[in-house]
Specification:
six-stranded mixed sheet; alpha/beta; D-Maltodextrin-Binding Protein, domain 2; five-stranded mixed sheet
Length: 289
């Protein structure tokens, strides 16, 4: 028979072995996670190309120059400069806004650059760079009657044009508006529908709205004078575990801010330094989780 003392010794050895195996397994799991993130960056470096998702239809963030097929815009040029500073070639894939985040998850693109706001909800599934643009939300309405809208509460029953998954459409829906989606179309389609009464309002970024109206001055539209909401921060989006890629992109962006590159690009496309936070009273609207 085996003595109690021997049984206790065996139990202690077994426990020690299990502890060692468990620790090794945890170490492998941690290393695997870190290696996965490193592999993403290593794969991009080996490929020599940073694949960037963008719409190509959002002036002045991502668009084609009139009379040419050249893709440009603030976000496009920021992403292009990041790739250059990382020693990579920038390869752009144009797609609808609603397809960008799923394309990051599927590995179709490495990053997305399309005036995408940083939110707590998105941070659960994706990683973001440091912000390179700050703004706030506004509303484009008909000039003659402000589309019957005095405040965001008056959105109830109105038709709001926008991308289905954008923050702006979520806000419009929160206040009772019906969302009208278009897919990957240019600004003029949205604007003309408001002017013609097919829709009532477009909620979006102040700087984008301002430039859009400047491009189409004959549509009798205006940015609502009393609606300013949700200070926003725009950043590069990437996979949740792409810590190495995030680190390199952040380093490039901080250098671009320090040497004035961001300010120069911002003034070129927005006629203002959007890399700095605006200082004014802006209503904060919390979205339902």
């Amino acid at each position: 028979m085996i003595s109690n003392r021997t049984l206790r010794s065996l139990a202690w050895v077994l426990s020690l072995c299990l502890l060692i195996v468990f620790a090794a397994a945890c170490g492998q799991a941690d290393n695997g996670k870190n290696q996965s993130a490193a592999d993403g960056w290593d794969k991009i470096k080996k490929r020599g190309t940073l694949v960037i998702g963008t719409s190509g239809t959002l002036y002045a963030s991502s668009f084609h120059e009139e009379g040419s097929n050249k893709l440009t815009g603030y976000d496009v040029e920021v992403a292009r400069e990041i790739a250059k500073r990382l020693g990579l070639k920038a390869q752009f894939k144009e797609m609808d806004f609603d397809a960008m985040l799923p394309s990051i998850k599927s590995g179709k693109i490495d990053i997305a650059a399309n005036d995408i706001g940083v939110t707590a909800e998105r941070k659960k599934s994706f990683a973001f760079s440091v912000p390179y643009k700050y703004s706030y939300g506004t509303a484009i309405v008909r000039k003659k009657d402000l589309s019957g809208i005095k405040s965001l509460k008056d959105l109830k029953g109105k038709k709001a044009a926008g991308a289905a998954t954008s923050i702006y459409s979520q806000i419009a829906k929160k206040f009772g508006a019906t969302i009208v989606t278009y897919g990957n179309v240019t600004n003029d389609v949205y604007l003309k529908d408001v002017a013609l009464g097919r829709t009532d309002v477009i909620l979006n970024d102040y700087y984008l709205q301002k430039l859009a109206l400047e491009a189409y001055p004959n549509l009798n539209l205006v940015i609502h004078p009393n609606i300013k909401y949700n200070l926003s921060a725009t950043a590069i989006v990437m996979g949740k575990n792409q810590t190495e890629l995030q680190k390199h992109i952040n380093k490039a962006l901080r250098a671009m801010k320090q040497d004035g590159t961001l300010a120069k690009l911002a003034k070129k496309f927005y006629h203002a330094d959007v890399s700095k936070k605006p200082h004014m009273h802006i209503q904060e609207i919390k979205l339902d989780k």
